[in-house]
Specification:
two-stranded antiparallel sheet; globular; 342 residues; 20% strand; nine-stranded mixed β-sheet; alpha/beta
Length: 342
């Protein structure tokens, strides 16, 4: 029997996260969704926690750590549902969080995916970095959100309490139609982790499907549970995957100029990490990311061709035409509301 909503939590050595956050998911979701945990071959006591404390969860045991992207692909292949809801293990949900998302998706068949408003577990009046009130991209591939621009994270004063079309919805709490997920090819497993949800959502927008934030639903996110901020591996994956996403998704007319500018911006960032932040690990991570992107770019030529064939329009308004670096560091515009509309 096909489920209406399948909440799928991908877990890797997150036993303590499951102990802390799973109770709220079950309490506030069980009447409207089936809850699954897909385990990426954890070596901690995750399976003991699931079997002893949360026997009502359906468990999918994967044979190895497939990462975030392919871990979800492998798990979702085994689940039949109208809507998937990809949920991080460090999310605290609230009463009535699921209903607005379901009702919105039911009422808007042109919407492929949506997200709730994402607030911080540590400060519940402040947006959370990894998604906030919904995501956008600047001309050169830098992501930003309603409520978070680079390191500036805003307090939630209701300023983003309207439904908003997005370029990308956070993978921390992403509701997506199963049909759209598979028609777009799912998450790109080669990314392993980081930027994979942005890449998927951009591909959906290229196909003419909408992505939205539904702020009547709100959840709280801890964040940084797997790779904390400042980890060189996180830096490497972010740079490599972001460049790969640009190569896959940029229209032909923008590919060369955007990639030329990113060459300069990426090496500028690398030297800034070394000289100002004294981070040799992050410096090396950026250089390695660019080297590895150049090496594997040819492997994505077929993807780029397929995405080009699926393109409904080159102009996607949620991908803004300005440079976020210029706006933030030169113009001093550090909140979403202060940025240009185009």
């Amino acid at each position: 029997m096909r489920d209406k909503v399948a909440i799928v939590i991908l877990n890797w050595n997150g036993a303590r996260m499951l102990q802390q956050y799973m109770p709220s998911v079950l309490q506030y979701s069980r009447d409207e969704a089936v809850v699954y945990v897909a385990d990426n071959a954890s070596t901690d006591f995750s399976m003991d926690v699931l079997l002893s404390r949360f026997p009502e969860c359906k468990v999918i045991e994967l044979d190895r750590n497939w990462g975030f992207a392919d871990g979800y692909n492998k798990a979702l292949e085994r689940i039949e549902a109208e809507y998937y809801l990809l949920l991080n293990s460090d999310i605290e949900v609230t009463h009535h969080w699921l209903t607005p998302l379901i009702e919105f998706m039911d009422a808007h068949p042109d919407v492929a995916a949506c997200q709730p408003k994402l607030l911080s577990v540590a400060d519940k009046d402040r947006f959370e970095y990894a998604g906030a009130g919904g995501g956008f991209l600047d001309r050169y591939g830098y992501p930003f959100c309603r409520g978070r621009v680079f390191e500036t994270v805003e307090r939630d004063n209701g300023q983003y309490d309207t439904v908003q079309d997005l370029l990308w919805a956070t993978g921390a709490a992403l509701m997506i139609r199963s049909r759209d997920y598979w028609e777009a090819g799912g998450l790109d497993g080669r990314f392993f982790a980081h930027n994979e949800e942005i890449d998927l959502c951009w591909r959906l927008r290229i196909r003419g499907r909408r992505i939205c934030c539904v702020p009547d639903s709100q959840v709280y996110h801890l964040g940084g549970g797997t790779l904390p901020k400042g980890n060189p591996m996180k830096t490497y994956l972010n740079f490599r995957n972001n460049l790969t996403m640009l190569y896959k998704c940029l229209p032909d007319s923008e590919l060369a100029p955007v990639m030329r500018m990113r060459w300069w911006l990426d090496y500028l960032a690398a030297w800034e990490m070394l000289l100002l932040k004294h981070s040799w690990g992050d410096f090396r991570a950026v250089w390695r990311a660019r080297h590895d992107f150049k090496k594997w770019r040819k492997d994505f030529a077929a993807d780029r061709a397929a995405i080009r064939q699926s393109r409904v329009a080159d102009l996607i308004p949620e991908r803004r035409g300005f440079s976020l670096l210029w706006q933030y560091y030169v113009k001093g515009r550090k909140t979403y509301e202060s940025l240009p509309e185009r």
